[in-house]
Amino acid sequence: MPRTVAIVEDDLPYQENLSQALTQQGYIVQSYSDKNEALEGFNHILPDLAILDIMLKDESEGGFELCKILRQMSPNLPIIFLTARDRDVDRISGLRLDAWDYITKPTSLNYLMVRVSSLFRIASSAQNASSEQSTLVLGDLELDQNSMSVRWKGESLHLTLTEFWLIETLARNPGHVKTYEVLIQTTRQRFVERNTINGYVRRIRKKFKEIDPSFSMIQTVFGVGYRWHPQS
């Protein structure tokens, strides 16, 4: 069954070029020119992947706002920011919203088609892994791949998709060190550095400690990465 890709882009000639390129690759394309139009379409049917510009008509942060709403609608939907804004602060903002990629204009359509195909492969791989081993119970930790949810001592944590992926990677191999390189790959994002991983881990620990102030299961292996402490 063909995959559906949504384009939210207010530059209509550019939007048309993207649409033609994606259609030629066999995708079904939904095109929108502003945030409200896109939301109306998404409330009717969600795409399999979304490509968002950040500045949408008179809304300078329209793409960011749309990404937040999409994440609430579907925590595992692949999202690409395609934008002329190339500042690090914008890249960081996009990745913190759990976009799967951040690509700056101008970029070649061939490169974009490769990235779309790559993200679909990642999404399929994650879905297959979910069906093979959807739940994990490890001491006080309960992790559910199907709902992308984590519980600690019976209480739910409010996590982003990236935070879920990082916890899953650590907890499925308790006692084993996961290097920064492995954790960077786990985020499914580009332009991720060690400090970015450290920031994610700080936020994850804080969320666990809001439930359990004595939480200490995520151990730092200085200069290498992190591991989940095996419970006896």
Tell me what the structure shows:
The chain has 232 residues and is of the alpha/beta class. Helix content is 45%, strand content 20%. The protein has a five-stranded parallel beta sheet, sandwiched between helices. Strand 11 (218-221) and strand 12 form a beta hairpin. Helix 2 (35-44) runs parallel beside helix 3 (62-73). 29% of the residues are buried.
Task: Lay out the secondary structure.
Layout: E1 4-8, H1 12-24, E2 28-32, H2 35-44, E3 49-52, H3 62-73, E4 79-83, H4 88-96, E5 101-104, H5 109-132, E6 135-138, E7 141-144, E8 149-152, E9 155-156, H6 161-171, E10 178-179, H7 180-186, H8 194-211, E11 218-221, E12 225-228
Parallel strand pairs: 1-2, 1-3, 3-4, 4-5
Antiparallel strand pairs: 6-7, 7-8, 8-9, 10-12, 11-12
Give a brief description.
The protein has 232 residues and is α/β, with parallel strands linked by helices.
Low-confidence stretches: none
Q: Walk across the major sheet and give the strand order.
A: 2-1-3-4-5
Average of pLDDT = 85
Taking the alpha carbons of the first and last residues, their distance comes to 46 Å
Report the helical percentage: 40-55%
Class per helix and strand makeup: alpha/beta
